[in-house]
Write a structure and sequence with these properties.
Order of helices and strands: HEEHHEEEHHHHHHHH
Strand content: 5-15%
Mean pLDDT: 82
Radius of gyration: 21 Å
Distance between the termini: 67 Å
Largest sheet: 3 strands, mixed
Strand order of the largest sheet: 3-5-4
Shape: globular
Number of domains: 1
Structural class: mainly alpha
Low-confidence stretches: 1-13, 173-183
Helix content: 55-70%
Length: 274
């Protein structure tokens, strides 16, 4: 039992030292250094570029670069850091941002988002994940869960639980973590990225109301799994919550417009094709 106590003490100390606060004031577990996460992000982005076709369409690249630059420059995120923005030629309705200043947008998302403001909501949301260190948080929680699960397994062995019962308990523990902690927490991260992204797009002079419009479109697709089994909140709920936050960003949007921030990003003609 001595080794179990040492393991649990080590885990408690690691968690206590790794507590952090997100941009919205939420408590986080952050275990990895940011430079390590940035290196992992760069490595993952390079890998994606070898696996996904990169779009050479000048209009698509100008469009996404224009939106990304408007958000990054208006919020000071581009200061001292050059972001790489890549358009992937794929019908996936998807986009992402990674630690290490990387942004990827799929042509499927360019087609899906009906206006530059809607695509700005997507880009702002993805950058929000990076600002809030969500990748680091997820990796950290996986590490902590693995450590806790390992400690629990040793505890069961200490009580001489039979192998069949021990296996069933461990399987249940893993499932309990997935539905009781990992998925709800990921939904929390998605909501937090929505909040940060809304703020970023408003600061850049994009119409913040377009964020809710985008999720109205997503809700119309009707492809979401039940929310309790999804890592993302339901689209209609996201649209509703974004509308409830409009008043909180209106002043920033008006200030951006008064400062001359009126992004003029031209949507490529292929995106408007039927």
């Amino acid at each position: 039992m001595h080794h179990i106590r040492i393991l649990m003490i080590t885990a408690i100390c690691a968690v206590a030292l790794a507590c952090a606060t997100s941009p919205t004031g939420r408590r986080q577990l952050i275990l990895l250094p940011e430079d390590q996460m940035a290196a992992l992000g760069v490595q993952a982005f390079d890998q994606i570029k070898t696996e996904e076709p990169v779009s050479k369409d000048p209009a698509a690249n100008r469009y996404v670069q224009c939106i990304s630059n408007a958000i990054l420059s208006a919020t000071g995120l581009s200061e001292g850091q050059a972001w790489e923005v890549v358009v992937f030629d794929s019908d996936q309705v998807n986009a992402f941002a990674l630690p290490g200043a990387k942004i990827g947008v799929y042509t499927g998302m360019i087609r899906f988002a009906e206006t530059p403001d809607q695509l700005a909501a997507v880009v702002g949301h993805e950058i929000g994940h990076v600002i809030a260190r969500h990748s680091n948080e997820r990796v950290s929680e996986q590490q902590a869960a693995a450590l806790a699960q390992g400690g629990f397994a040793m505890l069961l062995e200490g009580f001489q639980t039979d192998p069949t019962t021990r296996g069933a308990i461990m399987a249940g523990l893993g499932l309990g973590h997935q539905f009781g902690r990992a998925l709800p927490h990921n939904r929390t991260q998605e909501t937090e990225a929505d909040v940060i992204g809304l703020d970023l797009m408003a600061q850049a002079g994009f119409q913040p109301g377009a964020a809710a419009e985008l999720w109205d479109l997503m809700a119309g697709r009707g492809e979401s799994p039940p929310e309790f089994m999804s890592t993302h909140p339901a689209p209609d709920r996201r649209a509703r919550e974004l509308r409830e936050r409009m008043a909180s960003v209106e002043e920033k949007f008006q200030a951006a417009r008064a400062a001359g921030r009126r992004p003029a990003c031209s949507r490529p003609s292929f995106a408007a094709a039927p």
